[in-house]
Structures
1.
Amino acid sequence: MARDLILLALLLLAALFWRIRRREADIRRRYPPLGVLVPVEGALVHALTMGQGPDLVLIHGASGQLRDLEPLMRRLAGHFRVTAFDRPGLGYSTGLGAEGVSPAAQARHLAKAAAQLGVKSPIVVGQSYGGTVALAWGLEIAGDQAAVALVLVSSPSLPWPGKLDWWYRLTETRLGRALAARLATALVTDAYLDSVMPGLFAPNPPPPNYARATGAALAMPHRTMAANAMQVNGLFEHVTTMQTRYPGLHLPVELVHGAEDKIVPPAIHSQPLSALLPNAHLTLLPCHGHMPHHSDPEAVVAAITRAAHRAGWTLAWRLS
């Protein structure tokens, strides 16, 4: 009896690992890299560049990758050279292990990739967790890749009350990440991903076919899920440290936040942050949630335009 149970357990384990490998191969077949893989100190950074003009860097949020930013890139590419990155450990960018938990380490790593692509004096735009990395970019990066302005969209920036949701509590430990990420890779379907998108966008509807169009399944490989969980679980400690430096960040900062954002509430993040930064301008969007770069892209484009003017760029056109 015991032997039979052991055999059954081994068969189930083999089936699980077969399913994981098949699922991950299928995801990467359906959503190949869109840009180039830039080598940075033994790792790779996936980057996509569009357009010509002054440099604009876009950084995506948690559980994301640069495909989420592609519609915004296309709006901007007529007037900027727009470069979007997969953050370390997500999409097609190599993870940085424990170091990658730090937004500052991510910013330094992406700035090195930006240097190889010839990016100079960029406006750095970040959505959600990407905005925290953009803030770290402003604090950490000097020289040719130093930001001339920041645009933060629905971005966490300060310590928050309470705990993260059940998934992140489950993946706080190494064992929890190892088990939960593999089970999710094997079991979570595209249909389930579609079903959770309304909660991400609420109170706005997601764009039609959003999960498939933006390659949301690229969040599902188990190593990607584990890296994302480590980063999100480590964020509180890092924003707690970063906040002491915000009053010294004198470059122009545009904050764009949905007033109804329940994921990163503006009353906890963008509103108090705007009071801490010496040169910030806050735009609260009534009736919008966590994803205004999709639900109100004109407002995000307008913020980028203002950031460019405030940085001293002469723009003889209006983005639309």
2.
Amino acid sequence: METILVIDDDININNMLCETLQTEGYNVLRAYSGTEAEMLLSDKKPDLILLDLMLPGLSGEQLLPKIGDIPVIVVSAKADTANKVGLLLAGAADYITKPFETSELLARITVQLRNARSNRRTDVLTFENITLHTDTHKVSVGSEEVKLTRTEFAILKLLMLNAEQVVAKLTILDKISLDTPDCTEDSLKIHIFNLRKKLKAVCGKDYISAVWGIGFMLTSQEK
């Protein structure tokens, strides 16, 4: 069950939002000031935040950059377009103006939670017993972590995104160029060799196949 934090100093609005969300099946947390919300967030991590702007203590504008990677829907009486744009550029996921229709707010919440779930899924890639975490840059085979260089990680990530498909050498170089500008056509084979060696040392399987004259692919092979 997903948890939503409601930050609003108006007790009636806060209660109304919490009751509505609970009726919809969400867990709710509540805070009545920016300072209280900041303290709560040091210990809890809700799935989404509804944030009023005019708060005692820290204002909504001051609190927003402190929230981190939790999606925030600003719920405010401020209707100025420039203010909305500024908050969206500052990291808010969405903005709804008071007064609002409950159905519209719930729809916006559904969209943001769905997007957040989708983003979390892409944080972890798996192929057989290989697991790659795109956010922490950790790779493991089974329960054993495999230490990869930045270039090896970028290559493995691309191959896992295209598992069982041949990825051309030039495509690899183009796709990983921003992360690994040091990787060249001449050094690519060395990076691939080292990556294959590290994976095989843990599991005894050679997951990366060279397709002569074209490129490489991540595929399941027998020991």
3.
Amino acid sequence: MKSKGGRHFDARTTLAAACLVLSACAGQPEKEFEQPQNVSPTVSKLSQDLTQYYAQLERRLILRGLMRTDGGGPDTPFTKEDLMRDFQALAFYGEYVSGQGFTKATAQPADLSKWEDPVRVRLLFGPSVSAKTRASDRQTVTALLDRLTQVTGHSITLVEEDSNFDVLVANEDERYDILTRLQDQRHPIGHQSASLLKTIPKELQCVVLAYSSSPFSKKYIQALAIIRAEHPPLLRKACFHEEIAQGLGLSNDSPRARPSIFNDDDEFALLTEYDEILLNILYDPRLRSGMSLNTAAPVLRQIINERYPPET
């Protein structure tokens, strides 16, 4: 989950959570979630205010030269040591204190977490999301999943049912009811994490929770991302990029990671070349879920040295 430290809270968010902490030990729901009908419900003043707030936020960020979509360039060089440092910070430390909601952690160590089974992503929409916007979101997510599959070598596909990574796009009026319905259908979200997601501070633009099969496992088996329907186009696309990417296992943020979306500074809106390298490293089979930093460090060094051999 991302927030803006002591300045302001402008970024997209990711919270990686263990099964025990967020009561997410259930299996697949017995009944698939029924997509709401595409109607035009009355939108509350709160949701309207949020729409205006995020539109203004996006404009301010762009005017400041942030929310770049170029993926990095000559102005953003990086070295092998940058990769080593940033991968360790992103993959082996948690951003939030386990069991304490959105409480920021200070250098909280964590073992490596990733998916071993194919990732099956399902989009769920609230009634306020128009057919046109749904089609655009599906196009965005399909392209992103194809890119992530190519980068990681791991199967990541968009599905209509039998999902293990749900992405909910809903406005402030709808999120509570939809999460309640998911709980009623025995979705692995669990009551504690559902309660956390039903009231999200406006400073948090979006969030993803990833669940393991037990308190002792670091293998992800389920994830749920929340994307605000109030977002304007670029913030919305940025949320898809960051939450789905961070839901694969790079769950922390680092102020030194650049060029990267795994950073609180909003310089980049969309997945960068650097992010692709980090995700490629994460899904190298030599790095296994449950590895500690001490165990993984020499393996990580070997992978990076192979990717960037010394010049002769």
